[in-house]
């Protein structure tokens, strides 16, 4: 009998299947949080606050992309899933001519 997946395993599987959506949501939440934080800091011009928010979100996005690359590498190395592109590439379709 198959055990039901834990909540953490279910979230991990969703993140693996939707890497770009996860990175985009992380960027959006990063820029929103950074803008909220910078708006609470008095004595800075609005343009500086926006630039700081963009820089913070960009750093967070780079970290998320590095994490997504690490997850992709781990999945390919451990071969937890079959190749997702195998159904699009025919095995005998490209014969070599000698």
Automatic annotation (TrEMBL):
- Asked whether the UniProt record includes Hydrolase among its keywords, one would answer no
Which InterPro entries does the protein's record reference? Hypoxia_induced_domain, Rcf2
- Does the record carry Calcium as a key word? no
A Pfam match is HIG_1_N
Q: Where does the HIG1 domain start and stop, copy by copy?
A: 1-83
Broad class of the protein's primary localization: mitochondrion
Q: What are the alphabetically sorted keywords of the record? A: Membrane, Transmembrane, Transmembrane helix
Q: Where in the cell is it found?
A: Mitochondrion
Please identify the protein, giving its name as recorded.
HIG1 domain-containing protein
Question: What organism, scientifically named, is this protein from?
Answer: Hibiscus sabdariffa (roselle)
